[in-house]
Amino acid sequence: MRIALVMDDMPVRSNGTSSTALRYADALREQGHEVICVAFGADGPDSFDVPEHHIPVVTPVAEGLDFHFAQPDEAVFDEAFADVDVIHIFLPFALGQAARDWGRAHGVPVTAAFRLQPENVTYNANLGAAPLVCDAIYRLFRDWLYGDIRHIHCPSQMIANQLRKHGYRSQLHVISDGVPKAFCPGEGEGFNDGLVHIVTVGRLSHEKDQATIIRAIDRCSHRDQIRLHICGKGPLKHGLEHEGSRLPHPPIFEYRSIDDLIALERACPLYIHASIADIEAMSVLEALACGCVPIIAEAEMSAPSQFALCRESLFEAGDDERLAELIDWWLDHPEKIAEWSPRYAAEGMGDHVEKCAERFAAMLEEAIADDLSAYGEEVRS
């Protein structure tokens, strides 16, 4: 197949949407498909750059979150989408809507992914969970894009359930984003400080709730032996730095390359994920694949608690007291870490990106047949 991937902001590797798009593109090419990318900041072979879309009031806020909207460009579409078999859209904004319209006008099948959780919007707008606002955003996204898409990729069953709950009638395909094979147990980074190093990965934002992790470590009986690594970027960095400054060993805030992140995770016995809202959270699976034992927050709008294999890997979101108890329990029982680490590594490596890309390609083939049938054309052989 010749596949066009359409996303707003290609260069931002710190968010799951861009990372997944680029990983899928590489995996699909390795499987013999042709893949082109249309995005703001698109660079490299088979990539088509479009301008930034400036929206009054909204753009400065988005740029503060390290995100850029893309401006549709019909001339770029005409060149990029020539002879493609399918257009796959990652976000429901102006670029995705225009790409959908181009596909419909030219008889090219169109699919989409649901990747922006409404709770991500409300938490970053300082509204908290705001269920009524989230309901409105689900309706808005459906009206903007998804109501006219027959096949939608969902990274988790949790978000598929939410789409059904909010009246989405398309065929939903639950396919993990997949873990690159590089994430696996092995020799890790060497620490010679006598401390226990614990890691968490994610945007420094309200819904990721790294503050709960800091408060929990402050409560731990092992607080004098713990060093927390917070890997990510985001608007809450200074506030989290201030909160973490009271710990005996203040957290290290860093943004690492893939290789350096793997080396860190291989050296950390525990990975903590406190997020209140997450569509899938590949960072959890990646850490598991490296051998970390996780402690994961349970929340209605957060999917990664599905990866927990034992009750000692779960706590109620926001409950720093229970999280502290679990951190202490694991550190008091190193034999349990040794027992569960290989089990979690197997769990993390169970869905490599290559397998997920194969399932994604099968979804695209099904969508091509359905859309061409709807267009009144014969399926291309």
Automatic annotation (TrEMBL):
GO terms for molecular function: glycosyltransferase activity. Residues 15-180 form the Glycosyltransferase subfamily 4-like N-terminal domain. InterPro entries: Glyco_trans_1, Glyco_trans_4-like_N, Glycosyltransferase_grp1. Keywords: Glycosyltransferase, Transferase. GO terms for biological process: carbohydrate derivative biosynthetic process. It holds the Pfam family Glycos_transf_1. Residues 191-341 form the Glycosyl transferase family domain. This is Glycosyltransferase family 4 protein. It comes from Adlercreutzia muris.
